[in-house]
Design a protein that fits this description.
Layout (H helix, E strand, L loop, with lengths): L3 E6 L3 E5 L5 H7 L18 E11 L7 H5 L2 E3 L3 E10 L45 E7 L11 H13 L8 H13 L3 E7 L7 E6 L7 E7 L3 E8 L4 E9 L9 H8 L4 H23 L7 E8 L1 H7 L22 E2 L12 E4 L9 H10 L8 E5 L5 E5 L4 E5 L21 E7 L6 E5 L7 E2 L1 H13 L17 E4 L2 E7 L10 E4 H25 L8 E5 L8 H6 L11 E5 L1 H11 L1 H13 L1 E2 L6 H9 L16
Helix pairs in contact: 5-6, 8-12, 8-13, 10-14, 12-13
Length: 638
């Protein structure tokens, strides 16, 4: 079959593709990542490219204006290659996966937490007994003699019973096949490696010599937007390295629904699986290299994520997660060999997936509950993970009930006109003079403003409300002002003028942006409200509200309350806990007690499907105002 050469500028990257390959697929093949929040459905209009030379065929979606067509601008996902071609990728179309874009995320991984709000959480978190999931035991067996002709395997079993009081009944056939030569070449000094999670003390594998000091593991939080990982010394539970990266699956869609739909396409599941595995393996390799570790000394990984992310990691078809009656293939996963999921650690190393609860409440929530210890407290606590799914858990030692709010990616900066993730150059703090409407702001890294992240949007909304720029329904003030202008798609407020922005374009907040954010906050608030209603409780009964996720670390509580995202209760009840999913994974990796607790907690958490609750719609509609239609819930708001 004839191949066409496609070149992408300014990288000068060229790939060969088959006829009728779309430009988005060609870009992925070239290692160039484009914004494609809709998963290549031609809806979001983010993957714009400029055709400099060549022949293409484009499907019309209405997302490209006549003026853009004249400039050769096309949507990559609906533009198909019909000959050799050269494309230019504009900055706005790029999905920023660079290391410098994650500077802000590293703050939450400081070992001593002195620079993060996690410090306040130290008095609440659950501490577990140290007992790693993988244990190494050294055995000095002594050579057999004519007087001591015990078999090699029985010699190992006897020494384990004598020295460690362990009855090892099992061992892989592959290990027995090499045992004779291994023992004799290592002078009968070996290390037996055990998986501690199983009901029996079976040997996982055997190493020559004493390798007990070389026992390391990885904890990973696989988020829809970002992936965060830590390298842990299992002997002393010390965090040796931390890294974060954007989930490369974002090129196939910004939320779980679009990725599930993409997985149903021919080759889609494999592409999504390889994208996340590439991220994990890159992080594993980098962290191991920084610590001068051999990958063979990495004995296990613990991963947590929402149910869809776990299915894609394991290359399990997620189709039925989004179809009634919304049943995943599994919530509790067996222990796997890491290589089965293409994770590159010791080939005999293990992969543990934190158990989930339901289709839209996954192991990341279980890990968060484990980290907080709320499942053991007599006080009523609430865990809110403000992200794309907006998971919430309410309960104590007697019960735990959860729900997923389907908030969408707005609070992660996605799907908004000038939205971006919490990266360098993102506006994360906003102040507006109520009299002059003059704007002051801060950006992550102190860089020139490039866009607005979630915390910046919450600040901006609260300030716009206080200044009268928008009303309680989110509508713009009709009076003329140089910062408010009308466009073909409605009014917009100019937060930063183009001569002061890094992109050379105005940074604005549109009426559509306000509407998206209003719906997102309403979904989260209504989700918690319906849980309280179902249990006959009110907000005052909650003693502690844990706000999880990287987003929560920079959230201004008063502004979140002002717009109705969080309840108007005592401020000391709010506790920012950073990435509780990763922290929970770390606890599970380092403690058999935490591992078993996670299994029990996942069984204990009940799940409320909000789409089947008529009262949820009522609560959601009531929350579609700033802060709410029922102002008695917000007595501190004028």
């Amino acid at each position: 079959m004839k191949k066409f050469k496609v070149t992408f500028e300014p990288e000068h990257k060229t790939v060969e593709v088959s006829p009728q390959t779309n430009v988005l697929q060609a870009a992925i093949s070239a290692g160039i990542y484009l914004n494609s929040h809709c998963g290549g459905e031609g809806v979001c209009g983010r993957c714009k490219v400029i055709l400099k030379k060549g022949r293409v065929k484009t499907q019309s979606t209405g997302r490209i204006s006549p003026q853009e067509k004249e400039k050769g601008i096309h949507l990559a996902c609906v533009t198909f290659i019909e000959g050799d071609a050269i494309f230019e990728i504009p900055p706005d179309s790029r999905l920023n996966l660079q290391k410098e874009a994650l500077e802000s995320l590293h703050l939450q991984f400081k070992d001593d937490y002195t620079e993060t709000p996690v410090l306040a959480f130290e008095k609440f978190k659950k501490n577990y007994c140290a007992s790693p999931l993988i244990k190494k035991l050294f055995l000095n067996l002594g050579a057999p003699t004519l007087q001591d002709r015990q078999s090699d395997w029985e010699r190992i079993q006897q020494e384990l019973r004598r020295r460690y009081n362990i009855s090892a009944s099992g061992c892989p056939l592959s290990e027995l096949r090499r045992l004779g030569n291994l023992l004799r070449s290592s002078d009968w000094k070996i290390t037996a490696v055990f998986d501690e999670t199983g009901p029996k003390k079976d040997i996982l594998y055997i190493e020559a010599g004493d390798t007990t000091t070389k026992n390391f593991g990885f904890a990973f939080d696989i988020g829809t937007t970002t992936i965060s990982g830590q390298l842990i010394d299992l002997n002393n539970q010390k965090v040796l390295a931390s890294k974060s990266t954007y989930n490369k699956q974002a090129q196939f869609g910004s939320d779980v629904i679009t990725r599930i739909m993409y997985a149903a396409k021919n080759g889609g599941l494999e592409a999504l699986h390889q994208a996340v595995v590439l991220d994990l393996n890159e992080m594993i390799q980098k962290m191991a290299l920084e610590q001068n570790l051999d990958l063979n000394d990495i004995t296990c990984c613990v991963c947590a994520g929402n149910t869809t992310m776990m299915h894609l990691l394991l290359k399990i078809d997620p189709t039925h997660i989004r179809l009634e009656p919304y049943v995943p293939v599994a919530n509790f996963f067996p222990v796997f060999k890491a290589y089965e999921a293409d994770i590159r650690i010791n080939p005999r190393g293990l992969l543990y997936c934190v158990p989930g609860v339901a289709s839209y409440v996954g192991g990341d929530v279980t890990a968060g509950v484990i980290w907080t210890g709320m499942y053991e407290s007599q006080d009523l606590s609430l865990l809110i993970d403000i992200g794309t799914n907006g998971e919430v858990v309410l309960g104590n030692s007697e019960f735990l009930i959860s729900a997923a709010a389907s908030a969408g990616p707005a609070f992660e900066g996605s799907g908004l006109s000038c939205g971006m993730r919490a990266a360098k150059g993102a506006i994360n703090k906003v102040k507006i003079n109520p009299n002059s409407w003059e704007v002051s702001f801060e950006t992550i890294g102190g860089a020139e403003p490039l866009g607005i992240c979630g915390s910046g949007y919450i600040d901006a909304l609260a300030e716009m409300l206080n200044a009268g720029i928008i009303d309680k329904g989110g509508k713009f003030d009709p009076k003329a002002d140089r910062r408010i202008r009308s466009t073909t798609e409605g009014k917009e407020f100019i937060l930063v003028e183009k001569n002061n922005s890094a992109s050379g374009k105005d940074i604005v907040i549109t009426e559509a942006d306000v509407d998206n954010l209003k719906r997102a906050k309403a979904a989260i608030f209504a989700a918690v409200s319906i849980l309280l209603v179902k249990l006959g409780l009110d907000w005052k009964r909650i003693k502690q509200i844990f706000i999880a996720g990287g987003f929560g670390t920079s959230l201004e509580v008063n502004n979140a309350i002002r717009i109705g995202l969080l309840p108007d209760i005592e401020r000391e009840k709010f506790c920012f806990i950073g990435n509780s999913s990763l922290a929970g994974c770390r606890s599970i990796l380092c403690s058999l007690e935490a591992f078993h607790s996670a299994c029990e907690v996942a069984k204990k958490i009940s799940y409320l499907e909000l789409s089947l609750e008529p009262q949820y719609t009522e609560n959601y509609m009531a929350a579609l105002f700033f802060p709410h239609t029922d102002l008695s819930l917000f007595p501190g708001i004028n």
